[in-house]
Amino acid sequence: MFENLSDKLERAFKVLKGQGQITEINVAETTKEIRRALLDADVNFKTAKDFTDRVKAKALGQNVLTTVSPGQLLTKITHDELAELMGGQSAGINLGGNPTVVLMSGLQGSGKTTFSGKLANYIRKKGKRVLLVACDVYRPAAVEQLETLGKQLEIEVYSEKGAPGSSPGDPVSIAKNAIAHAKQHGFTAVIIDTAGRLAIDEKMMDEIAAIKKAINPQETLFVVDAMTGQDAVNTAKAFNERLNIDGVVLTKLDGDARGGAALSIRSVVDKPIKFIGTGEKMDALDEFHPERMAGRILGMGDVVSLVEKAQEHFDEKAARELNKKIAKDQFGFDDFLEQIGQIKKMGNMKDLMGMIPGVGKALKNIDIPDDAFKGIEAIIKSMTPEERKNPAVINGSRRARLAKGSGTNIEAVNKLMKQFEETRKMMKMMGDKTKMKAMMQQMQQAQGMRR
Description:
Elements: H1 3-13, H2 24-40, H3 45-60, H4 70-85, E1 100-106, H5 112-124, E2 130-135, H6 142-153, E3 156-158, H7 171-184, E4 189-194, H8 202-215, E5 219-225, H9 230-243, E6 247-251, H10 260-269, E7 273-277, E8 285-287, H11 290-297, H12 303-312, H13 316-327, H14 333-345, H15 349-354, H16 359-362, H17 374-381, H18 385-389, H19 396-406, H20 410-431, H21 433-450
Parallel strand pairs: 1-4, 1-5, 2-3, 2-4, 5-6, 6-7
Antiparallel strand pairs: 7-8
Helix pairs in contact: 1-2, 2-3, 3-4, 4-11, 5-6, 7-8, 9-10, 17-19, 19-20
């Protein structure tokens, strides 16, 4: 995401590279490039102009410290202003009420139903018992789509399907009945999926306004496809004027190399982006953090989000068992395979690597497929239980057998064996506090020598 914008901003900061001081001329040149980058990213013109005017004013009002270059200072100012442009602080979802009621709105094809499933999964992790409600009575198979998601997530779906050929039910009544059902059966959160509608369709807009009035939800969210750029901002504005939405959800942000919607929506609509969708899986949903996103746009990475993703899938009991094995030098290929599984649960590999500062830029033109571990898993699964437990027994003839059994080659098997050995050594060293301390001291000494 934001690939094109990140590239152009990087070029803009190069104007100041090697400059000893900030002047009106070099700042004007840089901010002109920043404005052009924002406009190319499909950011609203007024938003882009106001943004660069603020950056310029702040830059010219700063004294550059001897330890900070003009380029670094302008990058910092731009980062802070980008974060402010996108809302400054993250805006969480309101889970008050008994039950919490969330009303979904959006255009057809925006990914609203899929997001409803993702949100149900997210809220359930917060300790809520969730009910999904099918209020899209117009789109063929809309109810079935939500029921399929509910079955996949093991979350109940409330619907009022009539007999085949009968006229569709009234969405206002369905929503009210669903909340009564939730109260009666102990559900503590209700997510109401409505039909996709156009802002110019008065009848459909009247209907969702009537649903909101009837149920008085804690949250009314507008779901929009980030890839529609400036159109996403305009439709969010139209829906907000009618519904007074509480927040925006940007879906398909992982496929948007420009990012105009994410950058413009807050300043134009004055409503926060609450969530972003970053893939098809039911856990591919992230809370939106403006400061972290600004860091990612400027190639600074997003270590905080990476750590949070790791913690979500962290199993304390399994970690203790693994530490015992490492201490006894019993770390085997079954353990290696388990660690790969944990990494895969965290999401798309390229996105994860892009959260590490400096790595995203290096991976820009490199395609990392989602099945990047496929060959490794095939080799490990071709091993006998003894080989997995005691890799030292894997000699030349066994390696040839593994290559044949996994559909790979000897080079791939040898590479895996080397990776495994390096991983095992690193894990053992991390478990040895004395060695770890010595390694840190060596790194600090090396850093001092480079200075």
